[in-house]
């Protein structure tokens, strides 16, 4: 019996190693390359590859002819053999992203919907998901799971949304959010944590990282190496509610002077009756009032970034909706942060999010990809 178990475990290990070897190679590989790299016999590799081909997880990428005869057939990953979906719930919209197992985006949609914590709202969001899958022609049998993000503190242990000021939620059971999506595996998490996870996924180096999300709410995440640090109470990374102006502007959390009160994207859009795109177009065209508003915003943002940098002493990634507009302004932001810290002269520790406004959706969807890859 023990020998049979050992044989089954060895077979499973070989299966995992072969699939992950193909997954980790951007270019197609031959069975000879797999066997040589993993120290396995050709029959073992061939048997496992045949299983993967039958399951649709891998495919032959073609046979190449040469003057010396036929070259070995190469094996490639079928990246869309499985996919996952991330849904970002905001106070004024729902975002949906579908990704394959290489984190390549299969589709994106943003739908304007005012949030309300009602069964009808979540049922409507679930219908948006079904319509999204239909529009993309995605086979639900290949769906690994649905991740949902909210702009607030999520306590997975207590299964609650503890506090989400932009959604006006306190101590809401996660089941009330997830029930409408129960046809699929589903999870709920903080949007900034999901964004930070997405950013860490694409970085090859295993470094500490702070993620700062600049949207209508301001949130953050801390990653130690490639692992999220959530704190003793699951509340770490709430950088939007550090005080940068004592007794300053009121914040939706009930306090005053928070970074969110000064660096919400609403300060550049809703408060002015324009969109972010219009704001930065007017800024580029030299509108003086817009330039003054941006200077004030940037000053408060760099105050917050300097506090984070001094306290955490690691790389910082700027993300969220605002990140899409910051490329032309990043050097100036870096300079000002360096001027406000003790040790920095080079601002290369500060970068922009790779996924911009899609990051939360991608990050929460990636958890199902990771689970799939580790489940072989």
Describe this entry's structure for a reader.
The chain has 376 residues and is α+β, with helices and mostly antiparallel strands. Helix content is 39%, strand content 23%. It contains eleven helices and 18 strands. The chain has helices at 2-24, 31-38, 42-55, 119-136, 174-178, 191-202, 259-263, 276-284, 288-312, 330-339, 359-374, and strands at residues 29-30, 58-60, 65-66, 69-70, 74-77, 83-89, 93-100, 105-112, 143-150, 153-155, 160-164, 169-173, 186-190, 209-214, 218-224, 227-229, 315-319, 350-352. The strands form five sheets. A five-stranded mixed β-sheet has the order 8-7-6-9-13. The longest helix has 25 residues, at 288-312. 36% of the residues are buried. The mean pLDDT is 93.
């Amino acid at each position: 019996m023990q020998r049979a178990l050992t044989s089954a475990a060895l077979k499973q290990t070989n299966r995992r190693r072969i699939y992950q070897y193909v997954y980790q190679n951007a270019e197609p590989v031959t069975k000879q390359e797999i066997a040589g790299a993993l120290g396995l016999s050709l029959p073992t590799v061939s048997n496992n590859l045949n299983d993967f081909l039958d399951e649709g997880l891998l495919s032959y990428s073609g046979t190449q002819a040469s003057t010396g005869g036929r070259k070995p057939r190469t094996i490639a990953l079928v990246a869309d053999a499985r996919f996952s979906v991330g849904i970002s719930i905001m106070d004024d919209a729902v975002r949906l992203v579908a990704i394959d197992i290489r984190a390549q985006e299969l589709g994106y949609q943003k739908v304007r919907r005012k949030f309300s914590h009602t069964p009808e709202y979540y049922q409507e969001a679930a219908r948006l998901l079904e319509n999204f899958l239909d529009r993309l022609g995605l086979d639900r049998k290949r769906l690994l799971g649905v991740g949902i993000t909210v702009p607030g503190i999520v306590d997975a242990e207590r299964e609650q949304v503890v506090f989400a000021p932009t959604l006006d939620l306190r101590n809401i059971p996660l089941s009330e959010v997830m029930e409408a999506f129960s046809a699929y595996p589903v999870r709920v998490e903080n949007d900034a944590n999901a964004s930070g996870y997405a950013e860490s996924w694409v970085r090859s180096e295993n470094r500490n990282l702070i993620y700062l999300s600049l949207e209508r709410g301001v949130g953050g995440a801390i990653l130690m190496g490639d692992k999220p640090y959530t704190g003793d109470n699951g509340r770490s990374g709430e950088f939007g509610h550090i005080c940068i102006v004592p007794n300053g502007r009121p914040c939706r959390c009930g306090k005053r002077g928070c970074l969110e009160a000064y660096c919400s994207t609403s300060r550049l859009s809703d408060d002015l009756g324009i969109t972010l795109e219009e704001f930065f177009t007017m800024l580029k065209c030299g509108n003086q009032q817009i330039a003054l508003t941006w200077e004030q915003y940037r000053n408060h943002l760099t105050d917050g970034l300097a506090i984070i940098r001094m306290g955490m002493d690691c790389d910082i990634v700027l993300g969220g909706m605002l990140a899409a507009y910051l490329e032309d302004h990043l050097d100036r932001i870096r300079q000002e942060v360096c001027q406000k810290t003790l040790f920095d002269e080079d601002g290369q520790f500060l970068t922009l999010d790779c996924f911009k406004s899609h990051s939360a959706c991608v990050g929460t969807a990636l958890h199902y990809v990771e689970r799939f890859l580790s489940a072989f």
